[in-house]
Amino acid sequence: MNDTIFFFFYNMAHHSQVFDAVVVFFAVYFPYIVIIIAGLFLLFHHEVLQAENPFQVFLEKKKEILMVFFIGIIAYLADTAIKFIIQTPRPFDVFSQVHPLFAEDWYSFPSGHATFFMALAFALFFLHKKTGYVFMFFAVIIGIARIIAGVHFPIDILGGFCVGFLVAYLFKKFEPKNLTV
Length: 181
Description:
By secondary structure, this protein is mainly alpha-helical. The chain has a single domain (2-179), classed as Vanadium-containing Chloroperoxidase, domain 1, CATH 1.20.144. The protein is built from seven helices and no strands. The longest helix has 33 residues, at 54-86. The protein is globular and about 60 Å long. The N and C termini lie far apart (44 Å). The mean pLDDT is 89.
């Protein structure tokens, strides 16, 4: 089933240079935009940049702002450890007919992008529900683009989503009460 779903998405690639460019944009460049959007949301949501004394407001809200990105980084480190242990090859290493739209190396499972962006999305969700949903959508778009690009299997993306959610959930559940925003 994993291979069937992979080829369903991957077979969309290599038919149009424009479509391939859009896929590469969402798989490679859009993640940077999502990080910037998350940072700007947290800064503007707390009116840090609009305050008379932005540094003071940032110090008051720094725990929430930094925690969102810290959760993403911890999730990515967990992803790296899992990749090192499991060592799953990428689709283009398994199937000779798969030609990725861009180069990737190292192991495939779980997807580091899916892990980081789902952790970021759930960290935001636990703080701001509606915004969290938007970032979950972004994570799904990035994940699907990476499947179409031929660098991940669907199970890699799903595994990344699970790791990202789990890390964010554990931080939320075991957050010391004296650190609450």
